[in-house]
Give the backbone structure.
Amino acid sequence: MCGIVGISAESNVAAEIYDALLMLQHRGQDAAGITVCNSDDKLSTRKSKGYVRDVFAQRHMEKLIGDYGIGHVRYPTAGGAGKEFSQPYYVNSPYGISLAHNGNLTNSKQLANELFHAEMRHLKTDSDSEVLLNIFAHELAKQREIYPSAENIFKAVSKTHLRCDGAYAVLALIAGHGLVAFRDNNGIRPLSIGIRKGKTRDEYVISSEDALFSSHGFKKLRDVEPGEAIFIDKNGELFSQQCADEPKKRPCIFEYVYFSRPDSKIDEISVYKARTRMGTKLASQIKNSKPDHDIDVVIPIPDSSVTAAHQLAVDLDVPYREGFVKNRYIGRTFIMPYQEERKKSVRRKLNILDLEFDGKNVLLVDDSIVRGTTSKKIIEMAREAGANKVYFASAAPAIKYQNLYGIDMPATSELIASNKSDEDVAKEINADWLIYQKLDDLIESVKEGNPKIEEFETSIFTGEYMTPLVENYLEDLENTRKDELKMQREKSTASG
Ligand code: AMP
């Protein structure tokens, strides 16, 4: 999970990119970085591990001089978690290119092989984003132009599309030339563009989420289309072209469920409104299956379920109460990589207001159930606080398969619903009744915002992946993601 932003303006952009990254911080808390290009066509970068506010000090910002630049926040989905994985990545040939990526390539191992053996490019990390950068750089270099035109850049993007499988929303800086953006031909990860009037030219922002546009004085122009590339040259002239053979808009549905900010619109669909519709659909399901339900109160598990839970309570005509208080200042210590630590951290993150539970039949609402750690712990806390019956609703259907397209999800075997019926999940988390959103209802909730979209990326619920998968890809990924194996790997690196 990552967030990206690029700005092309008349004057220094680093401070605005910094502010924009703060607004994208929910998309990744592991590392952050900014690269800008100055009037001498030199790139400057600051990147490191940590929150945006910790990575950039005054002394770093003072050195980031340039009118066009890109920024990245990272949460690891592929590659390791070391400092060397922070982005933007850089390659010196051709021109000097810096790149920031949100998504995940599913054929990056094969491409890394090709890059090494056929194209004689050495990669420093096993990051798929470094692979993507080198593929794009190689395709641009092949055209042997000292001054690349928009046409050269679009040709390189077309070739990149032909070689890369998976999901990618990309921003790249070409030193001395401009800012490039492109989105994979399914448009799985979001990317949109905004415009603002400068004194002598239009200024542009391109970002994973448009929530940050208005606070920076930009108006949304549109979403970047699947397969499309945009080039804003260093003088601010914008060029765009469709670079994929058969583009089709199939955005990731989990952006609407959990990942994106409620104040963003993705592919013309308001995340906030989609979440209210998810609440309405859950309410209908409850009313249809138990018209005489005995729910006394609806309680959200903060934060991403709040919008759906509130609408659910309104539609059921049942009181909505805040039964948990979230500690917003919890530091990095509590972002726990392993299961045992995760269990403890739920209690530290969420404190319970006993008086909303005592003697009541409560309906707890979360956006999704992944490992089941949160739901199990929360239900235990609700019972300790004196709840009579504890029901649980999830705004998303049961998550049964791992994510290949840039959302950080555990291995399939670690997903609580991977091999259980809904009844068995209910037993496991100790809920008196478990209501999962139906997939069709989820799709309708989102699609209503833009009926032109025919299909969404829903593989975590169905196991149907929409891009070609190389042999053993799923098994390999399963192994890299398993907690147990992660621990073993870390131990052996530590001692080795
Ligand atoms: P779990 O405790 O593993 O079942 O996780 C469920 C909780 O994690 C829910 O409250 C979600 O809001 C949240 N969540 C869902 N997807 C993710 C994700 N990819 N990374 C981190 N948290 C998530």
